[in-house]
Amino acid sequence: MGSAHDSVGGAAGRIPASGAADRIPAAMPVATAEDMRALGQRIAAALRAGDLIVLTGPLGAGKTTLVQGIGQGLDVRGPVTSPTFVIARVHPPLSGGPGLVHVDAYRLGSVAEVDDLDLDASLEDCVTVVEWGEGLVEELAADRLEITITMPGAGQPGEMRRVTVAGIGERWASAADPRVVPYP
After folding, report:
1. Neighbours of 184 (CB within 10 A)
2. Exposed site from 32, 75, 110, 117, fewest CB < 10 Å?
3. Any idea what the CATH number is for the domain that residue 168 is in?
4. H/E stretch holding 150
5. Is residue 100 part of a domain?
6. Cβ of 152: how many Cβ atoms within 10 Å?
7. pLDDT digit string (tens) for 140-154?
8. How far is 39 from 24, CA to CA, in rounded Å?
């Protein structure tokens, strides 16, 4: 078995990270926070300036942990922490890649409040990741990744998450790997 650096998905469903960096699993189980960060790094390998990611999932699902991995993969100034109270954080690049704009839209109630953040001003220069952005930020970009993290139902044991990635628009038409790893 490989380490989190050469595969993601935990013991229940390892997917090799080698191969085409722009291929992202369409759906997979993620067992640990380390695996979630490793998945974020793998996703970062496919990202470029101008990309928008919309993250959906319940409290405690691992959205910020995934963004930490994306930040590590993009090599941005950190630490990447939840921007819940500041709404948005900008993480400039440490190398030649794009920066990261990390937004938590949990406290935002309308598209107008999102518009007040002027996210479109930095969209072309950075990767923008919006937690709780479903229904609020889709109009920022025709092309985007929508990532949903689900957790086991009440009464089910374990911390296993299921991460589903959907590519929207021409940019992502062929980026999602057609393999779907079974959820344990």
Report:
1. 13
2. 110
3. 3.40.50.300
4. strand 144-150
5. yes
6. 14
7. 888 999 999 998 776
8. 9
Q: Nearest CA to 117 among 126, 127, 104, 134? A: 104
What is the pTM (predicted TM-score) of this model?
A: 0.79
Reduce the secondary structure of 90-132 to three states and give it as a string: EECECCCCCEEEEEECCCCCCHHHHHCCCHHHHCCCEEEEEEC
Place of tokens 């979630």: 36
Eight-class DSSP state of 171: G
Tell me if 182 is assigned to some domain: no
* C-alpha–C-alpha distance, residues 89 and 8, integer Å: 27
Of 1, 11, 10, 16, nearest to 177 (Cα)?
16
Count of structural domains within the chain: 1
Is 161 part of a structural domain of the chain? Answer: yes
Question: In Å, how far are 84, 96, 108, 162 from 75, measured between CA atoms?
Answer: 22, 9, 28, 26
Residue 56 backbone class (left: φ over 0; alpha: ψ -120 to 50; beta: rest): beta
Order the strands of the 52-56 sheet from edge to edge.
Answer: 88-91, 99-104, 126-131, 52-56, 144-150, 161-168, 24-30, 176-180
Crossing angle (nearest 10°) for helices 33-44 and 63-74: 50
Instruction: Return all residues near 57 (Cβ < 8 A) that are at least 6 apart.
Output: 63, 148, 149, 150, 151, 161
| Bridge partner list, 148 | 56, 164
